[in-house]
Every structure is written in structure tokens, then in C-alpha cells.
Design brief:
Strands 1-2-3-4-6-5 form a 6-stranded antiparallel beta sheet. The protein has one domain: Alpha-Beta Complex (Aspartate Aminotransferase, domain 1). By secondary structure, the protein is α+β, with helices and mostly antiparallel strands. The longest helix has 15 residues, at about 100-115. A hairpin with a 2-residue loop joins strand 1 (about 30-35) and strand 2. It contains 5 helices and 6 strands, in the order H-H-E-E-E-E-H-E-E-H-H. About 35% of the residues lie in helices and about 25% in strands.
Length: about 140
């Protein structure tokens, strides 16, 4: 059993995972925690991205809105992750033509889905979130 775990660990250290790890950890307050034998990336306490070996193939899983899960699952390299109540989709990343624009987009969408308001403000900058208008005193006319 130890050999099997070390093989999985070695496969989870691929360059594709190193690059995706940098994308995840660049997001505010993200931490990496191992769970279920593979890396999980969390915004606070909520997982938004995972690296896995499924059916002996490396993949990256994303927590997404149902419409995004469907779109990813219908793509050539995508599939509905076999857990997560239809709220997770994954991409196979064992080929040379990895679409990094898509992966970066899915990582950010996934993060935005689970991050709290403080994290989103840090991501977007305070100006991007709507501010409440200040009340100004109405001057009376003389």
C-alpha cells in the first residue's frame, strides 16, 4: 500500500500541478491542505480546487455552478467529478495541450463561488465592489 501512495504522490508532483498550484495560492487567503490523499485548495474553510488521480489519470477538479459543471463535463477533456452532488467538474491534464486560460478561469470562478466578501474585496480591490452612497446633508435655501 505504501508503494501505491508514493506513486500517487509522485504523480501529483507533475509540472501541470505545480503551475495550477501557483494559480490557486495566488488568490487571497487560500491554503493548501491534503485531504483524501490529494491536495485541496481552500478559501477559508471551503474547498474550491483539488488535484486528483482518477482512473489512473491526473485531473484538476473545480467547485462550480451547475451550468458551468455541465459545460465542463461536455468538453473533450472534462467530466463530472464522481462526488460533490453535481457541483464539481474536472479536467484531464495528462496531455500536452493543457488550456491554461480555461484552467485559470475555472480556478477563479470556483474561488469566487466559495470565498467570503472580504476575500472577494481583496481579489477585486475595494473599488470594484459597489459602495453604499454617502448621505449628504441637504442644504436649505436661504
Amino acid at each position: 500500500m505504501g508503494d501505491s501512495n508514493s506513486r500517487v504522490q509522485t504523480r501529483l508532483e507533475r509540472p501541470v500541478f505545480a503551475r495550477a498550484r501557483r494559480l490557486c495560492l495566488a488568490l487571497p487567503e487560500t491554503v493548501e491542505r491534503p485531504s483524501w490523499g490529494h491536495p485541496n485548495f481552500r478559501a477559508g474553510t471551503k474547498t474550491f480546487c483539488v488535484f486528483e488521480i482518477i482512473r489512473d489519470r491526473p485531473s484538476i477538479g473545480f467547485r462550480l455552478a451547475p451550468d458551468d459543471v455541465r459545460r465542463v463535463a461536455e468538453s473533450a477533456d472534462g467530466f463530472e467529478t464522481p462526488y460533490g452532488r453535481r457541483l464539481w467538474a474536472s479536467l484531464w491534464v495528462d496531455h500536452t495541450a493543457v488550456d491554461w486560460t480555461l484552467i485559470a478561469t475555472l480556478i477563479e470562478r470556483s474561488y469566487r463561488l466559495v470565498a467570503n466578501k472580504r476575500m472577494l474585496r481583496a481579489l477585486d480591490g475595494a473599488k470594484a465592489l459597489p459602495q453604499r452612497p454617502r448621505r449628504t446633508a441637504v442644504k436649505s435655501r436661504p
